[in-house]
Amino acid sequence: MDIGVGLWVILGCYLLLLIGIGIFGHLVSEKNSLGDHYLASSGLTGLTLFMTLFASNFSGYNMIGIPGDTYRIGYTSLMWIPGLVCICLGFLFLSSSLYRIGFIKNYLTPLEFIKDRYQSNILLLLVGINSLIPMLIYITAQCKAMGDIMEGLTSGVISGFWGSVGLGVVMLLYEILGGMRSIAITDVVQGSILLLGMVILLVSSVVEYGGLWYISQQIRDKSPQLTQVPDLRDSVSWLSFNFQLLFNPFYYHILQRFLASKSEHTIKRSVVILSFTPYIAGIAPITIGLIGLSLFDVSDQESDQIFSLVMSDLMSKGDIYYWIVCFIISSAVAAIMSTGDSGYN
């Protein structure tokens, strides 16, 4: 994909802004306070909490992986929308109780609940290891995604390794400088870019590709099996997928955000608003996959390239779409970084 200098200008300004936020977080933080570094002094307000939950949950996979998934399985990929809503339901079940107990007993980390409740150092160690291993896998996946996207954007000039190192250093810098406060503010920026990028993508799909109805007609003519109603096996798989996502809140970085909230009411209000975002954050990447399905013929092994193929096609439709594609790609980078920095804290 020939992206020119426009994208690098946007990404450069974006990375400088993140570093600036880290410096700001350092200047306003309470020095030598673990509570301030890890929980932002339990001061996350409604908008900030909503955005940090949104940016932490909707990762680069939403923008890059789901389109490839849609290309392979067609409309069955709509399971992502109720699945993302199930994540929000899981938040509602767990968040208020954890916050209430954490506030009364002044917890700094979610693991303190295990220590306080069961009074067992062995159990604490086991739960700590069990929390650490998934987070390491989680962070590794985001670092690989950052490397892959930088390697793809530069056509291999910047290797995946150095791409992930460069963006990883930026994330470490603003996390070390400002802790949870800096991460939450950067999540507001990254979440806003991601949400706006998805809206722009949906509008562009209507203007340039005729909207979902026309795209569906093309898919029905080309691959009718991908537009059929799911059979019993697919339906059971769909339900199983949604059930698993109910337990997403047990990710350590999500629990940490509940403890950092300003109040129980703030959590409930943020999660209720968050429950509506899957109808944008789910439909937008599925739309990319459906556009790719209607336009291109690639193997299942190459289906992860669908995001890049659709962006290249959209870019060819005029100068205005060059900048639109630059912004959408920037939102994909923001999605990956916002998910990765959540694990760092």
Name the shape in a single word.
globular
Number of H/I helices? 16
The helical percent reads over 70%
Radius of gyration: 21 Å
Approximately what portion of the residues adopt beta-strand conformation? under 5%
- Strand-pairing-aware structural class: mainly alpha
- Average of pLDDT: 82
Q: What's the total number of strands?
A: 0
Ends: how far apart?
A: 34 Å
The largest β sheet comes out as: none
The string of secondary-structure elements, in order, is HHHHHHHHHHHHHHHH
Enumerate the spans where pLDDT stays under 50 for 5 or more consecutive residues: none
Describe this structure in words.
The chain has helices at 6-28, 34-39, 46-57, 60-73, 80-105, 111-118, 121-153, 160-209, 211-222, 232-245, 252-259, 264-274, 278-281, 283-295, 306-315, 319-344. The chain has 16 helices and no strands. It starts with 5 loop residues before the first helix and ends with a helix. α5 (80-105) runs parallel beside α10 (232-245) and α8 (160-209) crosses α9 (211-222). 78% of the residues lie in helices and 0% in strands. The protein has 345 residues and is mainly alpha-helical. The model has no long low-confidence stretch (mean pLDDT 82).
Question: In terms of topology, how is this protein built?
Answer:
Elements: H1 6-28, H2 34-39, H3 46-57, H4 60-73, H5 80-105, H6 111-118, H7 121-153, H8 160-209, H9 211-222, H10 232-245, H11 252-259, H12 264-274, H13 278-281, H14 283-295, H15 306-315, H16 319-344
Helix pairs in contact: 1-8, 1-16, 3-8, 3-11, 3-12, 3-16, 4-14, 4-16, 5-10, 5-12, 6-7, 7-8, 7-16, 8-9, 8-14, 8-16, 9-14, 14-15, 15-16
